[in-house]
Structure formats: C-alpha cells, structure tokens
Amino acid sequence: MKKWSLPILMCSLLNAGCLVQFYAESDIEGLPCNAEGLCETGYFCKDDVCILTNTKQENETCDADDECAEDLFCVDMYEGCTIGDINCNLASTSSTGRRCRKACNPDTLEGHQSCPAGQRCHASATGGVERGFCQEGLCQEHSDCGTNVGMNNFCLNTTNGGGSGLCTQGCDPFNCSYNVSCNDCPATTQSCEPTFENNAVLGFACYAPGNVLAGSTCNNSTGPYCTVGAFCVVETAGSLSGTCRQYCAPGGGNPACPNGETCRTYTTTVGYCSP
Asked: Could you tell me the pTM of the whole model?
C-alpha cells in the first residue's frame, strides 16, 4: 500500500474531492471496506479490509477463492469431514489445509495424473467446470491405514505416485445382510467387496454400493455395480464384466445360498452362490 505523504495528507485535510481522486489513482489494499462490505474492482473484502484479488499462486495458503490466481480454487478436501471416518482421522493430522489448488477432471486417469506427484484429483461440486481439484491423498502403503477391529484396512487408488491414495476400511463380507447392510463399514449402507493387488484378492473392503441384484450383469470397472452383500464375479479371463453373486461359506454354514444355488469357492474362506 502506498504511504501517506505530506502533500496527500494536506490534500485529505483541505479538499475532499482531492482525496477521492487520490483513492481512485492509488492502491487501496489495506484500506477499510465500505459500509456494504465491498471494495473497488480488483479487490475483495476480507476481515473488513480491502485485499488485492488473484495474487496467490498454486499451493499457497488462502481463505477464499478471490485470493487465488485465475483457474485456482481455495479449498481443502478434508475440511469439515467427520472424525471417525478413516480418512478424516488421518487428515486431522496430515492435511495441508485450505490452499490455492488447480482444477482437474476426477473422472479420468489423466485427470489424476495432471496433478502434482503425490496428489489426486478430488471430485467437487464447486471445483469449476472440470468438477475437481488437486490435493494430496492420505496414504502410500496399506500399513498407513491401520486396522478395523482386527481386519486390515487398505490404501487404494495410488494413481499418481506415493501419498496419492485414500484409505478404505477392511470388512468381513459375512457380516453383511444381502441387499440391506454391512455392519463392519462406517456407513452400514456401504458394500463389502473384494479388493485386488497384482490380480489377486488382497482382502475385502468397504465401497459405495450399486443397485444390481444377484444374478444380474455387473462391471468391476465402469458399473453397474452390485448391491450390498453381493459382489461382481468375473468368470471369463480378461473380462471386466461379470454377474452379481451373493456371499456364502464354502463347505456349509452361514451364510448359505438360496435354494437352487451352490456355494462355489472364491477364496479359501469366502464363496459365492451360483446355479
């Protein structure tokens, strides 16, 4: 902000019109906002003071979008999330907070990889026309995610290098009621489904469910996805399409298959029901 000089001070004391002209020709940053909480074009009001807009660059701390350079958004993916959710618990100590972040497309691998290494493209209803913004993930290894009542949690979707993953809770599919709920998941309406590593079943984890019932077609990559208590069984090598099947206990016991179906082995401890 320009410093007051003696001529300007005299101007302000002797001539109100002169003072108006001074304001119009000067940098007003740091001066009070008007009575309506507004400032001249090119400035915005923050804490009752006028601040120059669009000056902060990518990854600088901020409080409002107006502070950030064009095409950047002032946001923190984890702000306001509920402690008790696995990622919110981690974010409470590791999130970098509100910063000016670049826009991206969260629906494509290219969108994630357009972010700086270690960041991912988070979906946001307010993230600009591309509906997303770049911010760090919360895990690099499965061990970063801890356990859920003795079951391992998992670090998934490290699509853009170490640190770009998010955690999901491990679960026991036998604690699900078909098309109703899964009791091991933080939102019991989530589904407990296989998670893979190197084309092998790593374990079972909580995911947002679909609405496809057992016996109908599903696709592990693009959807449609199976309802709670079922998972997509792919029986054709190299395919992503399969059929939604209910869980069952191999060798008998609960959960058992509906009449007319047989429990077929999926892993050493988990099976699926099929005609």
From this structure: 0.69
